[in-house]
Write a structure and sequence with these properties.
Distance between the termini: 62 Å
Order of helices and strands: HHHHHHHH
CATH class of the largest domain: Mainly Alpha
Number of domains: 2
Strand content: under 5%
CATH topology of the largest domain: Rna Polymerase Sigma Factor, Chain: A
CATH superfamily of the largest domain: RNA polymerase sigma factor, region 2, helix turn helix motif
Largest sheet: none
Shape: elongated
CATH architecture of the largest domain: Orthogonal Bundle
Number of helices: 8
């Protein structure tokens, strides 16, 4: 189905492109949000990527690879957004508590918070490959093809990204343990 829509969109059919954009929007937003760690920036990156896709669509050689091509455009825009905001601002969200929360829920919240803080400390290129591998489910070879990188570079970024996350989480645990001991 996507192939026919892509071919029609390549011929200038705006409705076909609209269907394609809507069918890929949720996935694009989720990837952008996980890379940029900011919903507003993810929306901006997604919009810019879709405009670029519309403009560059006639040059797409293989309509079967539309999804991977669109992901590549999005990732490049996420990199551009990240460079614009080289320093991420902390975002504080107030979570309303309507009823007492079970200790398991609190522990899950703490775990998510620790992962979020660790993820924010990673360089955007490492965040990107971790998102594409763990969230999207792509293998390193598929990530390499999507991003136009050598497979060894992707494996290296995965390795160093995992290592950096582990180091950040262990450092946070030591700091918390030191505070608790005082």
């Amino acid at each position: 189905m996507d192939r026919d829509l892509v071919v029609r969109a390549q011929g200038g059919d705006r409705d076909a492109f609209g269907v394609l954009a809507r069918s890929h929007a949720d996935r694009m937003f989720a990837i952008g949000q996980r890379i940029l760690r900011d919903s507003g920036l993810a929306e901006d990156a997604m919009q810019v990527s879709l405009v670029a896709a519309w403009r560059q669509l006639p040059a797409l050689r293989d309509p079967e690879k539309f999804g991977a091509w669109l992901t590549k455009l999005l990732v490049h825009e996420c990199y551009a957004e990240s460079r614009k905001r080289s320093r991420m601002n902390a975002q504080i969200r107030v979570v309303p508590m309507t009823e007492a929360t079970a200790s398991d829920d609190i522990l899950a919240f703490i775990d998510r918070d620790e992962l979020e803080r660790g993820f924010r400390r990673l360089p955007v290129d490492q965040r990107t490959v971790l998102v594409l591998h763990h969230f999207v489910g792509l293998e390193p070879a598929e990530i390499a093809e999507t991003l136009g990188l050598p497979p060894g570079t992707v494996r290296s970024r995965l390795h160093y990204g995992h290592r950096a996350m582990r180091a950040v989480l262990e450092a946070d645990a030591r700091t918390a343990a030191g505070r608790a001991a005082r």
